[in-house]
Amino acid sequence: MADVHIRMRPSGPFLVEGPFTLTDSEGNAFEIPAGKPAIALCRCGESKKRPFCDGAHKGCGFESDERA
After folding, report:
1. Tell me, what's the pLDDT at 35?
2. Is the pTM of this model over 0.90?
3. Buried b / exposed e across 23-42, counting CB within 10 Å, b at 16+?
4. CA distance linking residue 45 with residue 19, whole number of Å
5. Distance CA 40, CA 44 (A)
6. Could you tell me the residue ranges of all domains in the chain?
């Protein structure tokens, strides 16, 4: 998984780039579209497409911008 890169967007989603597998709590894999350069994962908890981001963070007042 050395080719996977996760970036945080200010007050937005985690952007996951590179090949990865995302599984739920029962071990079932979510379908990740092939050829998509990045997947956005929800951080605000308001997305209707969780665990994926649908842009809900823009209208729910979510603010976060942690620094390393």
Report:
1. 85
2. no
3. eeeeeeeeeeeeeeeebbeb
4. 24
5. 12
6. 1-18+35-68
Q: Note the pLDDT tens digit of each residue in 18-65.
A: 989 999 999 999 999 888 889 999 999 999 999 999 999 999 999 999
Strands 14-17 and 5-8: antiparallel
CATH of domain 1-18+35-68: 3.40.5.90
Q: How far apart are CA 13 and CA 6, in angstroms?
A: 10
User: Would you state the pLDDT for residue 26?
Assistant: 98
- Rounded distance between C-alpha atoms, residue 23 and residue 53, angstroms: 16
